[in-house]
Amino acid sequence: MPIAPTLLDDIDLSAAAVAKKTVDPKFFSSKLTGSGKKTGLLNESLRPINTATNTAYAMDRDIEVKQSSTQHDITTSHIPFAPITRRALLSGGDFTVPVPHVDDRFDVDTSTSRYPDWDVFFDMTPQAAMFYEDRSGDTSRRDLVIQYRMDLFFMKKGLPEPARAVNVSRSIGYGNHDAAVIQDWSTSPMEAARDFIEDSMRPAGLTASNLDDLTAWMEDYSIYERITRLARVWDSHEIADEICQYVRDMPANPTQEQLNMLAVQLRYLENYNVPLEAYRQIHHQLDTTFSASVATTLSKQNLSLLMNHTLDLLDRIKPQLATPPQPATTHSLPAYLSAQQLDAITTHEPLAMTRAGAGTGKSTAILSRIDYLEHCGVPAEDITVLSFTNAAADNIAEKNPKVGSMTIAKMIIDIYALNHPTHKISAIDTIINSIDIFYPNNQFANGFRRRLLEVDQNKVGAFTALNTFIENHFDEVIELLNRIEQTSLELQIIICYQKIDTMAEPPHVQSKFLIIDEVQDNSVFEFIFVLKYVTKHAQSLYIVGDASQTLYEFRSANPRALNTLESSGVFATFKLTTNYRSNQEILDFANVVLDGLETNQFANIQLQANSLDVPTADSFQEKVTLAYREVRQLGGFVTQDLQPIVQNTVIPDYAQGCLDRGEQVAFLAYSRREVGLIQEVLQKVYPQRHIASLVSDRVYATDIFSKYIKFFWNDVLQVQPNQASFVISQGIRDNMAKLTKNSGNSNVEKAILRTIHEWWIENDKVINGWVALCHQGSLLHAAFFERLRDNLLAFEIQRNQQKLNVNKQKNQERKRKNMESKADLVVSTIHGAKGLEFDNVVVLYKEDTKMSQDSRRMFYVAFTRAMKSEYILAFGTVKNAPIQSNYEQIVNALTERDEKNALRAQGIDPDGAALIDDDAADALDFPIVYASAKAGRASLAQPADGGMPDSENLEPLFETILENVPAPSYEEGATLQAHVTNLDASPYLGRLALCRVVAGKLRRGQQVAWCRHDGSVQNVKLTELLMTEALDRVPAEQAGPGDIVAIAGIPEITIGETLSNPNDPKPLPLIHVDEPSISMTIGINTSPLAGKSGKQLTARLVKARLDQELIGNVSIRVKPTDRPDTWEVQGRGELQLAVLVEMMRREGFELTVGKPQVMTRVVDGKVHEPIERLTIDAPDEFVGVITQLMGLRRGRMEQMVNHGTGWVRMEFLVPARGLIGFRTEFLTETRGTGIMNHVAEGYEPWAGDFRTRPTGSLVADRTGAVTSYALFNLQERGTMFVGPGAEVYEGMVVGENPRPEDMDVNPTKEKKLTNVRSSTGEELERLIPPRLMSMEQQLEFCAADECLEVTPAVVRIRKVVLGQKDRARLKRG
User: What's the rounded Cα separation, in Å, for the pair 242 and 83?
Assistant: First the structure.
């Protein structure tokens, strides 16, 4: 049984990057040093002026891609800042920009103008930057040139200042706009701003009288602060607000040029990590604004948008996807599987995702899933497993020979090869050279070449740009590839994706149930292809992965793709957190690292060991050793210090002890160089031991032949055919410096010469045969040289593929043999050790306070490879390294826990011992009363087990209370103070205020000061004073301190107010009552069945009842609507309103109740919604499912405390609408054990749309009684809510349609009778029992166009508009 990791509750993880996340200019680039103070690029002396000495640095261009390039020892870095590109703002249209805050802008004084009707002010925003590093001289020189967007705003006086202003050109002017802005861009605003302002104001007849003050404003302009603000925009939902506003500002009929600029803008987002929620919001805005075809085209401009678009398509056909049938018999799964694994393995959801932490049994889950599917009756041939590596695919195939097993790349390659058999897989370099050879002056080919080169260089947005290019020129691309007879994996993925509906597929890739392993390591486009493939074939998809173990971002893997899937709500999500590899000490240390990973902020995985052993401070320090070395230079440590430390410290202090115990030790490092240095030491110290290296050999593709043909083929054409081969080989030798970057390396030169020799050995007979044909006159010289060129290209393509395949096989075989040999010592890069486990591990860890997320993920993988112990050899330039403080905090937390456990073992409560002094030990001496409320008996003597107290009544209890509980203390003669703590109502006296008298005397008929909420004081007279005797309220003359009384005579009094002395009023602190957050409409029953079971039917009675509820319930409000028989009732939650409706139902009312809605506000032009602070206490086994439920409702975990007792307390901030219907689902998922409470937290910006109900409704199309014959035919269409004999009417919802649209059905249809007896006439019609829902569940089920009919006898769901034709007309608009 796993134990819960408790350390993180006791540790301040402030050192972790995400715990207290700060966003600064380094969000854009690590080169943007400084914090607006004395040092760094962004220092306090930096001004908005171009000080670069090189005139070439006067930037006037559109920077839309973050990139770096080096030429002639000068490195140029392009760094975009602004959310909207310059080209997008200049594309034409009424685009808007935010109006700056009054404290940020420079107010232009126009009072001396002829027409001073406008407020004019100036502001500027950093648009982008170019950073130059010149290392060509003796010293390095750095220049930072920032491009600014200058904004001059015109606001018509006398009108409220809007949040945004319309962008207009200088030539047109502000025109008819009440708020306009003219823009220009400059790298030196201190020099250009004045002219820009004057030139912009002159056409409007305006003049400025204070521009001399502009320089002072520029001097105070904080560039660091402005860039930091832009970083916060990119790192939050504000980026979605900016893009969505830009989309909304598009003209109603945008031009193609404007759509192209929007496409560029969407690709521009790929420069930085935009939050997942932002992409969902942008995708929704595109769908809302544009037609389906345009929205689809725009979604393809950005991989994250394309992922959301593909998921939407998949979600729409989810009910049509294959699902495993229910097993005929109970399947006996292995006993070692955990409850988490069983839930994941046995799911019947068509789309399921298992997020599995390190060592949690991903492979076991996949193999067991295959076994379970086969038990459910799924043939093995209908199951395909897609792995990331060939080795993993071979492992699946070995254990399940009938199951299809391959990599995603192999699947795509096979599909592509069947449709384009002449295209050979080649390197992109060779393809680019071939394009230059065959299409030297072709404009289309040049554009295609440029897109391929960007992909090869892994530039931002390159993949989406290539996808769009191929889509727009598909036939031309295929024609080009047919000509050069080459392709690449990137091209194969895109072409298969675009033509997936028409491409033929080989039989071995076809299946109904698809399983993907290590999904996080595949490229995003590969996974998008799989989603579209699943959509095409209506397959079931089951994926397994861990975003925190994504190590292949350099191959376009996206660690946040899994988060996109989970947050979309399309996939049912399961979590595996029980680690079967490591002990809890190792996992506690890994969890600290895991907590600093952004990928885990959404997944919220905390690894738990499959052990009952509780870690102690001693056991932790024994199993996890940290040795940190502070160094001056990181590179110097590796080259000079690493080998001596490993030989003189790590081996004798740690590794040797492990070896003496007969255990294995693995050394893991980041780079091949570090691994090589460690391996040299091990071979020197242990010459007799087997040291296994898991480092794979690299293979480099060669493009020497294609590059030679491109540059020097004319030299070959000048000679006779019999001299051509010699000219080629000699030409490559003579021009090696131009054909390869590493020509000075002797190994490179030898490899090239060997390749030339191999080419000639393999092709000399063929080439000499062509030469002979030329001598005979049978082959023209031109044809000979064409054949020779094609031969060289074919050899290059074939040799690169052979080298790649041979190298893969060698690496796999060597790795397999080394693992099977169970070597004493293993060395490996962290990438090579992924998926493996070792007895003991030494990790070389480089500490860096600016450590990137991919480095954190890599070391998380390294820290979770050990089974028994690990040694972290850390080095860095930081004095107090975060890894040191984390280690010490774990030790301190464990030490404190050990001390508390020791006290508990002695029978001492550690918390109590800390709070009570020895002198106050008698405070623990308190009386104990044993009582039975049911029997009405109490006693001071403990009865026997199962016995009753020996007293005949409760007098011992009351006597003990009187003796030990002190009476209220008060000051005699003090000023009256009575606090209103609750409200009630009486049919005779009206509103009653329940008061607690704190001081003074309260008398009937007394004049008192009523201290109200708004601070005002009003004198009122008490008409009645009531006190409680037994269970009844009786009149009283007066009440003193400590008494709780009810007073009447103040109809508008409310909770928290004070009654005091009119001559000296002293109000008590107010009691805050949370504002309403949910509303629903309540009106009279308007259905055809109204009046059949209720007695209170009229609008007057409903309004009177709601007014009566207002008297004693201050937390609800009743507002009128546009209908005289319907009111909007506002309350604190859907449960409170449901209770009110239930009370009215029991009182005989018949009502029409609308779907609960959240109450929003508009703050600074943005929609805000109420947020609730939700506190949940639940057993720790339900943490995963609760987190999943909250994630679907946009919940944000603020705190999680594990008490170590099996219970966990979690605090979430969740939109109030996320709690609608949550209570029922929460109790169901926690099996009734969960406890939840929520209080109002305030208002926050709209969190985005939730996953709405993915199903439709079955709606009755006529009035009548339900027949079993109709139900028998309808139950296959969906889930029914009614049984035989129930009364229905047109517009009533009688069931749930699994498809996302409504279906009108006839549930009253009767069987046609004939005089012919049927052979099956005596058979019974077997009906599925109807699904019965509580009123709260029905409220949650309601769609936007549905409501509830509530009567004393029954609660029905119905359409707001009952008539079928009326609904259709309303839908058409």
Answer: 7
pLDDT in tens, 1113-1129: 777 889 998 888 899 99
More confident residue, 1175 or 341: 1175
- Which pLDDT belongs to residue 217? 93
> What DSSP string describes 788-836?
HHHHHHHHHHHHHHHHHHHHHHHHHHHHHHHHHTT-SEEEEEHHHHTT-
Question: Is pLDDT of 924 > 70?
Answer: no
Q: In this structure, what are the phi and psi dihedrals at residue 548, rounded to the nearest 5 degrees?
A: -75, -10
In sequence order, what are the residues at sequence separation of 6 or more whose Cβ sits closer than 8 angstroms to the Cβ of residue 199? Answer: 170
Q: What gap in Å lies between CA 978 and CA 997, rounded to an integer?
A: 4
Best CA proximity match to 290, nearest among 234, 248, 332: 248
Question: pLDDT band for position 512 (50/70/90)?
Answer: very high
What is the pTM assigned to this prediction?
Answer: 0.63
**Cα 383 to Cα 368: distance, rounded to the nearest angstrom:** 13
Helix (H) or strand (E) holding 234: helix 223-234
What proportion of the chain, given as a percentage, has pLDDT over 90? Answer: 26
Q: How many CA atoms lie within 13 A of 964 on its CB side?
A: 12
Structure tokens given for 331: 């399947």
Give whole-number Cα distances, 697 to 149, 166, 243, 743, 899, in Å.
Answer: 50, 59, 46, 21, 52
- d(CA 396, CA 402) in angstroms, rounded, equals 10
Chain-wide mean pLDDT for the chain? Answer: 84
DSSP character string of 652-703: IIIIHHHHHTT--EEEEESSHHHHHHHHHHHHHH-TTS-EEE-PPPP-----
Confidence of residue 8 (pLDDT cuts 50, 70, 90): very low
Distance of alpha carbon 1198 from alpha carbon 156, whole angstroms? 45
Is pLDDT at 1347 greater than 70 in this prediction?
yes
Nearest alpha carbon to residue 1 among 1264, 1180, 1249, 1217: 1180
CA distance 449 to 940: 93
- Give CA–CA dist 578/358, Å, rounded: 9
Asked if residues 97 and 181 have their Cβ atoms less than 8 Å apart, the reply is yes
Say which residue the tokens 């900016």 belong to. Answer: 242
